[in-house]
Each structure stands twice: as C-alpha cells, then as structure tokens.
Amino acid sequence: MSEIEWPAGCPRTPPADRERTTKFGATLAETCQAIATEMGRMGVDDYRASTGSGGSHVRSNGLPKHSANPDDPGFVLRWSDDGQQFAVACDHYSDLRDNARSIYLWVNETRMRSQRPVQTGDSEFAAARLPSGDEETVVATAPPHEVLEVAPDAGDEVVKAAFRQKMESAHPDQGGDTAEFERVKQARDAMLGGEST
C-alpha cells in the first residue's frame, strides 16, 4: 500500500461519509485510459496520478492498474502545463474507480468548455491551479450535477428537489458538515444560474 499525495488544504471525505454509486459504467482500466487520452489532448507537460495503490498495482505514471483495490479509494491527478501546476482530487465515493471516473469527467467537461467561444476572466482550469509558496491549495470539486446527483441538463424543479433531499443530511442543523452544506448550495446555485430559491 502507498500513501496518497493528497493536496494540502483540501479536506478529505470521512470514510463513513463516502457514497456507493452505480452511475458510472466504465471500468477502472477504461477510466485510466480515458484520463491518459485527456492529458494527451490537453498537451500537458507531464501528469501523475496518486492513489492508495502501490507496487505492481500502478503504472509508471501513477495510474492504477485494473487489479488495484486499495483501502483508501481516493484519487488525485496532478499535471503541469506551461510551468503551472494543477491538481484535482476526489474521495467522495467508496470505490477507487468511481473517484477516478469523477476526475476524468471533470477534466473532460472542463476541457470541452474551454473550446467554447465564451469569454471568461481566467482559464477554466484556474479552479484546479496549485498556488505557489505558502498559499492554500485550491482543488476542484465535482461538477454541480454530480454533487446533486442529477443529469447535467436537469430541469430547475429536479435540481431544487435534489437540493432539498441533500439538505436533509448536509445541513449543519441536521448534523451535517458545513463544507458539504456549502458545496451543495454552490452546486444548486450553479445549476439554477445563480437563483437560490
């Protein structure tokens, strides 16, 4: 077993709070191949994955082999591009495959958005950029639709219903975590275009 190189300043999901999911149909091997393809499409200088797997269960780039089954299912993907360091991390799910798939989907969706003729104040990957020096690390979270567990094009009423359901366990008054509460609120707002009701 090896230790995950988890980005500093990024909170870990407590093991008891990790979710099981069946929404991803791809295997771990397919997902790792898709990640490698995305990194190639982005033309990054280099990349490396970090998982709880070690030894013969990982490739030279850190991507896990299909036989990987670590106790810690977290997945971190780091890359450098034009001298800037980036990292995305996910341990929301109880299975390594599902965390890796979430990372792949986020990178793919972010890369695809960057090809749209939309003006933004900064790179789409700014959310995942690793700051220099002693600044806190900023790590990307799952896309809003994944946080709420709805389709990317879900209607407003579906989003609102999913938000209410998530609030039953995420709200601090119900024993939930403040960070998760904020994450769910931000996901709702993003999917409703800034509306909060």
UniProtKB/TrEMBL annotation:
Give the matching InterPro entries: DnaJ_domain, J_dom_sf
Q: Region (Disordered) spans which residues?
A: 48-68
Quote the protein name from its UniProt record.
Heat shock protein DnaJ domain protein
What species is given as this protein's source? Answer: Halolamina salifodinae
Taxonomic lineage from the root = Archaea, Methanobacteriati, Methanobacteriota, Stenosarchaea group, Halobacteria
